[in-house]
TrEMBL record:
Domain HDOD: 20-216
This protein's name: HD-like signal output (HDOD) domain, no enzymatic activity
Pfam (any one): HDOD
Organism: Pseudomonas cuatrocienegasensis
Record InterPro entries: GAF-like_dom_sf, HDOD, RNase_Y/CdgJ
Length: 482
C-alpha cells in the first residue's frame, strides 16, 4: 500500500472499497438469503452465484464431489444443485468458496493460510456441535465460526506493507500481540472483525459469537467451542487445553468425554475433506491431523523457527552484487552474497546452487544454506541429460528462465520433478532458475521454504529473479577479465 491505514473505520473502508469489495458483496448477498427459502429465494441464490462464472464453476465442482454428492448424481446447474444438495448447503458452499477465492489468490502469507485453515476447522467443529443442540441454524453456526477471525483474515489478505511490519513485530521475543496490532493498525483484530460483521450485515449468530456474554445461547456456545477447539488442537490432541475443552463439550452435548473426543477427531478429519472439496487442499494440510505419523510431522513443522525476510539485508545484498559487476570480486564472494541475500534477505529457508561438473555430464551441489541442507553437498548429483527421464534442472537450464513450481502456471512441469529429485528436496513449492555467465552455462539455482511448509510469495520470486540476474552479470564480468 502506498499510504498508511490507521484506525477502525479506515480499515473497514480500505477493505470494503479498495481491497475486497467483491468478496464483501457476495458474502452480504448470500447472507441476505437466510430468511424465507421459497421459490423466489432459490432464484435469488442462483442469480448471486451465476453473476460470477468462476464462482459458479467452483460451486458445481464442490456439489459434484464425493463429500457433498456421494451418489454421484450429475449436477450441471445451480438450480439442480439446490434441489439435490439443499438451499443451505449451496449457500454455504458459495460463501466458503468466495472467502477462499477472495483471499488466497493474493500470493498468500503463511499467517493467512494458517488462519484460514484454522477457520475451516473451527467451522466444521462448530457445525457438528450445533447438530447435537439445535434443530436448525447449523449452517449459520458454520458461517459464524468461519468468519470468527474475519478482521485478521482480511488484514493478512490485504494489509500490504503494514502486514510486513506486523509480521516482523510479532516475531520479537516477549511481544504483546494485541498491543503490537493496535500500534500498527490503530485498532484490534477483534474490533475489526466486529466492524466488518456489522458492515456486511452478517446476522445475529455471527455478531453474538463475538461477545462472550451470550454463551448461554446454544448457537453461540457451539461457535465458541468450535473456535477454541481449533486453536487448542494446534498444541496437540493430547494437550491439557484439548482435554479441558472435550470435558466442556461432553457436558454441553450430553455424551461421555470419550465419545466427545471421538467426535472432535472425526470433525478434524471432516474439516480436511471440506477444505479439499472447496478447492483448497493446501489448507487441509494445515489442519491438525489425527494420524499419529502426520501429527508428529506437523508438530516438527510448527517447532521450526520461522525465517523472516529482512528488507535491509536484501537491499544491501542487491547493492553489493550491483557493485561487483563493475569491481573485481572473487567467485566465492559473489556466491556468498547471493546465498545470504536469498536466505537472510528474501527469507527463503533453503537455497542450493548446483553447477555443471564432470565435463558438464552432471549437476552437483556447489554451495548451500539453510537448516538441513548440508547433506546436499555430499549427496545431490543428477545427470545433465536423460532422454528416458528428463528432469526440471536440465529443463530450467535449457529454457533459461526462472520458474516457480507448485503453482497452476507450472503444473504441466510437475512430471519433470522426478522421484530422485523429490528424494532430495521433498514435496511442495520451489523456485528454480538457470545461472548463466553471458552465454556460458554455469548451473542452476534452487530455493524453497520446505522446513516450515510455508507457501512462497510473489515478492520472494521477484527477489529470486533479481538475484539470479545480478549474479549472472557478476560472473560474466569475471569471465571477461580472466
Amino acid at each position: 500500500m502506498s499510504t498508511t491505514t490507521h484506525g477502525l473505520q479506515a480499515w473497514i473502508d480500505h477493505i470494503n472499497q479498495a481491497e475486497l469489495p467483491a468478496l464483501g458483496a457476495v458474502v452480504q448477498d448470500l447472507h441476505r438469503l437466510t430468511q424465507a427459502q421459497g421459490a423466489s429465494s432459490v432464484r435469488q441464490l442462483a442469480d448471486v452465484l451465476l453473476r460470477d462464472a468462476a464462482l459458479t464453476t467452483r460451486v458445481l465442482r464442490a456439489g459434484n464431489s464425493a463429500y457433498y454428492n456421494p451418489s454421484q448424481e450429475s449436477i450441471k446447474t445451480i438450480s439442480r444443485a439446490i434441489v439435490l444438495l439443499g438451499f443451505d448447503n449451496v449457500r454455504l458452499i458459495g460463501m466458503s468458496v468466495s472467502l477462499i477465492d477472495g483471499l488466497l489468490p493474493r500470493a498468500p502469507r503463511h499467517q493467512l493460510l494458517e488462519l484460514l485453515a484454522r477457520s475451516f476447522h473451527a467451522a466444521v467443529q462448530a457445525r457438528t456441535i450445533a447438530g447435537y443442540v439445535l434443530s436448525r441454524h447449523q449452517e449459520e453456526v458454520f458461517i459464524a465460526a468461519l468468519l470468527y477471525n474475519l478482521g485478521e483474515l482480511a488484514f493478512w489478505g490485504s494489509g500490504g506493507t503494514q502486514a510486513d511490519q506486523l509480521a516482523v513485530a510479532l516475531e520479537q521475543p516477549g511481544v504483546n500481540a494485541d498491543a503490537a496490532t493496535r500500534e500498527i493498525l490503530g485498532t484490534s483484530f477483534r474490533q475489526l472483525t466486529q466492524g466488518l460483521i456489522r458492515s456486511w450485515n452478517m446476522g445475529d449468530i455471527a455478531s453474538l459469537a463475538q461477545n462472550g456474554a451470550h454463551l448461554s445461547d446454544p448457537a453461540v456456545k457451539s461457535v465458541s467451542l468450535g473456535v477454541r477447539i481449533s486453536e487448542a488442537a494446534l498444541q496437540g490432541w493430547e494437550s491439557p487445553a484439548v482435554a479441558q475443552l472435550v470435558e466442556q463439550l461432553a457436558s454441553f452435548i450430553g455424551v461421555t468425554p470419550e465419545e466427545a473426543m471421538q467426535q472432535v477427531l472425526a470433525s478434524a478429519d471432516e474439516a480436511v475433506k471440506v477444505a479439499v472439496t472447496f478447492g483448497a487442499a493446501r489448507l487441509g494440510e494445515l489442519i491438525p491431523s489425527t494420524d499419529p505419523e502426520q501429527i508428529r510431522l506437523q508438530q516438527e513443522r510448527r517447532q521450526v523457527p520461522l525465517l523472516m525476510a529482512n528488507l535491509q539485508v536484501l537491499q544491501q545484498a542487491l547493492q553489493d552484487l550491483g557493485m561487483m559487476v563493475s569491481k573485481r570480486a572473487s567467485v566465492t564472494l559473489v556466491l556468498d552474497t547471493l546465498l545470504k541475500g536469498l536466505h537472510q534477505g528474501a527469507g527463503l529457508e533453503r537455497v542450493m546452487l548446483v553447477v555443471l561438473a564432470d565435463q558438464q555430464r552432471c549437476f552437483r551441489a556447489r554451495q548451500v544454506v539453510g537448516e538441513g541442507t548440508e547433506a546436499w553437498l555430499q549427496a545431490f548429483e543428477l545427470p545433465t541429460e536423460q532422454r528416458e527421464l528428463p528432469h526440471i534442472f536440465s529443463y530450467a537450464l535449457r529454457n533459461r528462465e526462472p520458474l516457480w513450481l507448485g503453482i497452476p502456471a507450472t503444473y504441466n512441469l510437475n512430471e519433470l520433478v522426478t522421484q530422485p529429485i523429490r528424494a532430495h528436496i521433498g514435496q511442495g513449492m520451489f523456485f528454480i532458475a538457470p545461472l548463466m555467465a553471458g552465454a556460458r552455462e554455469i548451473g542452476v539455482l534452487y530455493a524453497d521454504s520446505r522446513r516450515s511448509g510455508r507457501a512462497l510469495s510473489h515478492e520472494q520470486f521477484v527477489a529470486f529473479q533479481r538475484f539470479t540476474q545480478l549474479t549472472g552479470r557478476c560472473l560474466e564480468a569475471l569471465a571477461r577479465r580472466d
